[in-house]
Design brief:
With about 450 residues, the protein is of the alpha/beta class. The chain has helices at about 15-20, 50-55, 95-110, 240-250, 300-320, 325, 330-355, 355-365, 370-380, 385-395, 400-420, 430-450; strands at about 1-10, 30, 50, 65-75, 85-95, 115, 120-125, 130-135, 140-150, 180-190, 200, 210-220, 225-230, 260-270, 275-280, 280-285. It has three domains: about 1-45 and about 95-175 and about 270-325, FAD/NAD(P)-binding domain (3-Layer(bba) Sandwich), CATH 3.50.50; about 70-95 and about 175-270, D-Amino Acid Oxidase, Chain A, domain 2 (2-Layer Sandwich), CATH 3.30.9; about 340-450, no CATH class. Helix 1 runs parallel beside helix 3 and helix 1 (about 15-20) runs parallel beside helix 5 (about 300-320).
Length: about 450
């Protein structure tokens, strides 16, 4: 049996960035992926990532040859497209395969091993610890690899943790209604796109029930766009590909356009998994539900989760202790930097999914929440009560007062859940009691908004 300090299952953005962060540690690391090296990271998505993620992690900007376009902001359109909010912020449209290969290549150059066309089959468990993994290597069959710490970065396949006993907290399964089922195409249009540095998001329950559709230009080419649509899972909504072609690709701007690539994927849109780590194992990226619940972006949060996990792994290996307690700092790190915001945005997502198109049109047209407030919600997960109270005073006597009262309750719940995650338990023994409080809060909120 071959032995490694760390084995990472999956080399998408989460797995490749974890390998990158670990590569200077000197610990023996193996990354495996079902895809060959040339196709790692090839998952359908919007391809956008905010510049602030690189700034926070101290990473250099992506190399120019992996950047498809530069982003200066996002326009959010109301259901009738009569109202537009602009949220300013820098970012990139990246070539996901090229950038993933860049990260993994850097790690390999520093000594990390990579096995392509290799599938993680199941974890090896001994006396309450994960101690390795069995893998299936194409052309070579099944092998066992021992590890001090195993990391599941296999995306929504959750190839490893789903095979653990459900008593393991990293196993935590997802409700289908907390998924977004998305389909997207990259298309070359006949005409150049106006303001290609501005991404566009359109909310409409008729076109994209429980989600939204997007138009993300690649500003380097000016006539190439990533266009897609996502719907809430578990609701028996129509196929997002059918909705995209029926309502969007039929538009005049897409006449005569050429499909460059296409595909679909399921995306988790909920609060993060209750713990990123347990005895001998960690989980990151989509497998840890580390995705923005409102817009479904997961690259930056996956990199951040992997960064936090890498710090804990290095600590655990240096001390010779791969227990949940030794790895626990990964949770504190992630929840303070992102998880608390993510949980607050999950509350906001559940609220938005309950609103009708009329409610959304009314709220945006009346500027109940202004652009600067939306930016604060997006960046920090904060819907300030003062903002809502001011809106209630200004709009007193107008129609739909219930919408304002609901928004005030949402602001309270967002604040409460964020406080809970910022006070994440300092030790594994406190996890059960803490998570009971989280579930009680969500239960009360869902009952109120139903």
């Amino acid at each position: 049996m071959v032995s490694y300090d760390v084995v990472v299952i999956g080399s998408g953005i989460a797995g490749a960035s974890l390998a990158y962060f670990l590569s200077r540690s000197g610990f023996k690391t193996l990354v495996v992926d079902v895809k060959p090296f040339e196709r790692i990271g090839d998952k359908p998505c919007g391809d956008a990532i905010g510049k602030h993620h690189f700034d926070e992690l101290g990473l250099e900007a992506p190399p120019d040859d992996v950047i498809e376009g530069y982003v200066e902001g996002i326009d959010v359109y109301s259901p009738l497209e009569k109202v537009k909010y602009r949220v300013v912020g820098e970012g990139y449209e990246i070539h996901r395969v090229k950038y993933t290969k860049y990260l993994l290549s850097e790690a390999i150059n520093r000594g990390v091993d990579f096995w392509g066309e290799t599938q993680g089959v199941e974890p090896l468990v001994k006396e309450g610890f994960v101690v390795g993994v069995s893998v299936w290597v194409r052309g070579k069959g099944k092998h066992e690899v021992s590890s001090k710490i195993l990391v599941d970065a296999s995306g929504m396949a959750r190839a490893i943790v789903r095979r653990l006993d459900d008593k393991w907290p990293v196993r935590e399964d997802i409700d289908q209604k907390d998924l977004n089922i998305a389909y997207r195409e990259v298309r070359r249009l006949k005409k150049e796109i106006e303001e290609p540095e501005i991404l566009r998001i359109y909310v409409s329950k008729k076109i994209a029930p429980g989600g939204y559709w997007w138009f993300f230009p690649y500003s380097k080419e000016r006539n190439v766009v990533n266009v897609g649509l996502g719907t809430q899972g578990g609701m028996n909504y129509p196929n997002p590909k059918d909705l995209l072609h029926q309502h969007i690709i039929s538009r005049e701007e897409f006449a005569g356009s050429e499909v460059i690539e296409a595909g679909g994927a399921a995306v988790p849109t909920r609060r993060p998994i209750k713990t990123l780590v347990w005895n001998g194992i960690a989980v990151t990226g989509d497998a840890a539900y580390a995705v923005n619940p409102v817009h479904g972006g997961g690259k930056g949060s996956a990199m951040l989760a992997s960064w936090c996990i890498s710090k804990s792994i290095i600590h655990a290996l240096e001390t010779g202790d791969s227990s949940a307690r030794s790895l626990w700092e990964a949770n504190i790190c992630f929840n303070r930097r992102y998880g608390a915001k993510q949980a607050a945005l999950d509350i906001f997502r559940l609220f938005l999914q309950k609103l009708s198109d009329d409610d959304l049109e009314y709220g945006m047209s009346r500027k109940i929440i202004k652009e600067e407030d939306l930016n604060e919600v997006s960046l920090r997960g904060d819907l300030e009560l003062s903002v809502v109270e001011k809106a209630m005073r200004l709009l007193a006597g107008l129609s739909r007062p219930s919408l304002l009262f609901k928004l005030r309750r949402v602001a309270h719940y967002m604040s409460d859940v964020k406080r809970l995650y910022l006070n994440y338990p300092e030790e594994p023994e406190g996890l059960l009691k803490w998570y009971e409080e989280v579930e009680k809060l969500y239960s009360r909120f869902k009952e109120e908004i139903s």
